[in-house]
Structure formats: C-alpha cells, structure tokens
Amino acid sequence: METEIDMAELGEKIVAVIKTIYDPEIPVDIYELGLIYDVFVNEDMEVKVLMTLTTPNCPVAESLPMEVEDKIKSMKMIKDAEVEITFDPPWSQELMSEEAKLELGML
C-alpha cells in the first residue's frame, strides 16, 4: 500500500514538473493545454510520457519532447524518461483544461 502512495505522490511530482513547460506560442503550460495524454512510471522508476503536439508540423516538434524528457530526468528519483509523440487522437481545444480556456479567454 505504501508503494502505491509513493507512486501516486511521484506521479503528482512529475505532473508538477511538466506544468513548468509552456507552449512557446500559447501562454499556457503543456499539461493544462491537454498535450499530455498519459504518464507511466514503472517499478524501476523509469517514466514514459505519451503526448501530442498542437499540430504535426509544430515548430517545437523536436525541442518540446526533449524538454519534457530532460526535466523529468532531472528529478532525483527518476532513472530514465522517454517521450512518445502520438497524433491519435489529434489535439483539439476540447482537450484543454478549464484553467487553460479561462487563461486564453475562451470561457
């Protein structure tokens, strides 16, 4: 049971780190923007992030996933991190959080 609590806490810490990364064209962090589809952590403390981009030819298609990987890898407990990009389902404004929509004046 304690391990589950630790993993949940670790998941929250990973999300907190991801929330420090912003889309360069939109003043909202990539988590609230809905670009992060899932975060997996295995028992070896290796993290896999499934994420998307606003468009397939996004100008930060190379650098944004690397930034996510690097920031997660910099966490003390994490041994490794990998980001997988998917466009299924494609990103849409419906994936944005209420907070992101409010920040962008969409509510």
From TrEMBL:
Pfam families: FeS_assembly_P
InterPro entries cross-referenced by the UniProt entry: Fe-S_Maturation_MIP18, FSCA_dom_sf, MIP18-like
Domain MIP18 family-like: 12-85
Protein name in the entry: DUF59 domain-containing protein
Organism of this sequence: Aequorivita lipolytica
